[in-house]
Amino acid sequence: PKQGLVHLADEPFAIRQLSSGRPMAVYAVESVGAHRATRNTAEILGIVAIGAMLLGGLASFWLARALSDPIDQLSQQMRQMAEARDFSKKIPRTGSSRELDAFTDTFNHLVTSLQAAEAQTELAYVGAIKALAAALDARDTYTAGHSERVSALSVMIGRQLNLDQAQLEVLRLGALLHDIGKIGVADRVLQKNGPLTQEEFEIIKTHPTLGAHILRQISFLTPHIPIVELHHERPDGRGYPHGLLGHATPLLARIVHVADAFDAMTTARAYRPAQTPTHAISELWRYAGSQFDAEVVEAFVAAWSSVPVVEDRPDLTAVLERANVLPFERQATG
Known about the structure:
A hairpin with a 2-residue loop joins strand 2 (11-21) and strand 3 (24-31). The chain is built from 13 helices and three strands; from the N terminus they run E-E-E-H-H-H-H-H-H-H-H-H-H-H-H-H. By secondary structure, it is mainly alpha-helical. Helix 9 packs across helix 10 (277-286). The protein has a three-stranded antiparallel β-sheet with strand order 1-2-3, with no helix packed on it. The chain has helices at residues 36-84, 98-137, 146-160, 165-176, 187-190, 198-204, 207-215, 225-230, 251-265, 277-286, 294-305, 316-322, 328-333, and strands spanning 3-8, 11-21, 24-31. The longest helix has 49 residues, at 36-84.
């Protein structure tokens, strides 16, 4: 037709004849429906869109894992450090994110600062304990330095018994404070130049309970209370203040009991001269199992025997230094 609609390859087209003549006629043709190519293109674009969505989903999942895994790892390392209370190692950088690495660096810096603050607090803590012990020793010139020597001797025994570092620190400070309750004992009893009467001895026997009462007012000294309160208990149950039998007394208190007795015997008093270490050790063996814990006595003798002692009446501080038991203030500061 000269004009109108025709179907070509099943597609509708509008046509108009522009000219005619032999041997040909000229027509204008325009599609009025969706072309097959258009439909093919739409199908292809649909497939591409679906593929893009799937690829985007996979990429998002991978990116989420790439971000969450380092975060989970960092969180786990921080939790392990907190549970173990071990902040000596720094958390390594992930290398996957500048933000996470910056956070890790900040956390490591914070831990370092906390360690420095904890060290300062510990020094103040040790200083307070030393001040309490010094206040006690200042009351009696004959017992000056007794608390520190007992502390060093106790650590020497503890090492022989293979105590771990945490137990040794509790032992060191507890031994330093073992006689702190004597602050509450009257000078007329504490500094008496002669044997005590039964009444005076009963007063002296209150010092472990008084010491425990003092320490209970200070929360960070709680671990040392059993040493202070029970260092005069005996395996045979004839000790004080509770008359505990055998291993009912904690090991650290039994250690301090032996160290305390040895230093007392080898230190001069107003009413008697100092005994030799040899005589003091023989007394410890004599009463091992009844007055003193036998295992602790054995450990003390083994530790003492490993230190070269030439003099019959040696300087105890020098002997302790030979045994690599540092004076308390040097140990506390580094």
